[in-house]
Design goal:
The structure is a homodimer.
Chain A lengths: L1 H11 L18 E3 L5 E6 L4 E6 L5 H12 L7 E5 L4 E5 L28 E2 L9 E4 L5 E4 L4 E2 L6 E4 L13 E4 L13 E7 L2 H4 L19 E8 L11 E4 L4 H11 L22 E3 L2
Antiparallel strand pairs in A: 1-14, 2-3, 2-13, 3-12, 4-5, 4-13, 5-11, 6-7, 7-8, 8-9, 10-11, 10-12, 14-15
């Protein structure tokens, strides 16, 4: 039943750039460079790479910490020590003993929310966690309750593990969402980035069994991190380059409409709306 | 930073039955048996087991097909042939050539929706795909737009692959959602079950690379299915037994409220609502 499956596959595929182009397709000029100092590359000892775009504009203190941690090579030799099904993969220092590099703020300001919802395009409908959700001009998904704004906990978003509130986390221990968006964490924890390449290197890891919480019980299960580097700290020729789609033009608004109303012939009933985590702003590796 | 991660873990854990019990905790009598003929056990050749509860009451023609396919041992020796990150794992006959067993309806009625929203408890807020979502008396999540009702495409839900609309699928090729709920598929395809054990046997599989659609390009990548059996076709002593939580009492309504408003000390800001896919009706293996 390969016929039976291909349409299902097509249904999920990003709007295809098949001829003739659709009015919502990106033009080459719609792709904007992600700054090299927002690109953090984790290379696992197994050779897989997990690349995170840092939300430097929204969470500057956390991102300053993360850059300092990367530059100190603090993550080199650390591990992914927790993988909980339909929730998160988490990495950093499982021993809790490694001192933070100089200059890293152990408990930064929360940076969970900010006052202004600076979306340049929005979705049609509210969701149970936000009255409005949309897109920043630099390619981030954002949500609001009318009083404050934040980055929602979608698949692939990267957050900072912390102790009980009101404690905050340094950024040394990070997690990525690998299942249905745990939006109840919105406004309760700092989202500092998004995995833009290699999320499957985390989402396919064996689930841990510790405490019913996905902890690897035997340190032999830990998945070692070989290195973590900012692209901006690599020689220019070695930097991987990524792009986000321009969210400010009419084509992008048509793209939103197409996400909210999937098209025939596979779909017979358009939803009339979309959840921000099913309509994440497009990113890609630079061609 | 183990302290830093444990609270995050606790945050996701189902309400704990720690002493003293919470008013929303299930009592032993709250756990109801899932009928054996609704339990379909796929055993992979690697020894992992994926157990599906069939939505027999909502999708009777599809489920009759699926039971007939299982009884004919049609899936034995077939494969998981597609795994697309943040979308679905799909299994059945990758060759498209295997004849269906006698009595199986090749194109059943759609059974995508039904007229009555028979929820006995509901969530507080709408979502972008439904005006209301809630729980049936026998432990299924259901959604409605006020005119019709359906089972939403949440993590772990099992659907029937089909060709382009208006074609429907026999049930020989099934998929399970392994990422953020693709709710745009709601009302466009039949959900016939829910994985109640072993979803990680699918969600941890390597992602396929075919067509950008998660197809395994080399048949050597296929993950073989050893057997597929209904629990009701096994000797009584060998049947695994599962239970769903009673959704009809006040304790369950308190459970919903607790899912919508996660508690301190980890959470400082309750969401005031939840997405049905973040509040799936509890199921468990019988103790």
């Amino acid at each position: 039943m390969l016929n039976a499956l291909l349409p299902l596959l097509l249904a999920q595929a990003a709007p295809a750039a098949a001829p003739p182009p659709k009015p919502y397709d990106a033009t080459p000029a719609d792709w904007k460079a992600i700054p090299d100092d927002e690109v953090l590359i984790f290379t696992l000892a197994n050779g897989r790479r997990v690349v995170v775009r840092l939300a430097a504009r929204y969470t500057p203190v956390h991102v300053a910490n993360i850059r300092a941690i990367a530059r100190a090579k603090w993550w080199d030799g650390e591990t992914v020590y927790r993988v909980q099904d339909n929730y998160v993969a988490q990495w950093g220092d499982a021993t809790e003993k490694k001192p933070l590099p100089p200059g890293v703020v152990a408990n930064p300001p929360a940076e969970y929310v900010w006052p202004r919802f600076d979306a340049v395009a929005t979705l049609t409908k509210p969701d149970p966690y936000a009255t409005k959700a949309g897109y920043s001009r630099d390619g981030w998904p954002i949500a609001t309750n009318g009083r404050e704004a934040w980055i929602p906990h979608c698949y692939g978003m990267v957050g900072v593990a912390r102790d009980l509130a009101p404690s905050t986390g340094s950024g040394g221990d990070l997690y990525a969402n690998i299942g249905h968006a745990p939006r109840h964490l919105d406004r309760n924890i700092a989202i500092v980035g998004r995995v833009i390449e290699g999320i499957d290197a985390l989402s396919t890891l064996p689930r841990g069994t510790g405490g019913g919480l996905g902890l690897y019980e035997d340190p032999k299960q830990y998945v070692p991190i070989a290195t973590a580097r900012l692209a901006s700290d690599l020689p220019a020729a070695e930097r991987p380059r990524y792009q986000y789609r321009d969210t400010t033009n009419a084509r992008f608004k048509l793209w939103i409409a197409a996400r909210e109303n999937r098209e025939p012939p596979f779909f017979t009933v358009p939803a009339g709306g979309a959840d921000i985590c099913n309509a994440l702003p497009p990113v890609r590796k630079a061609p």
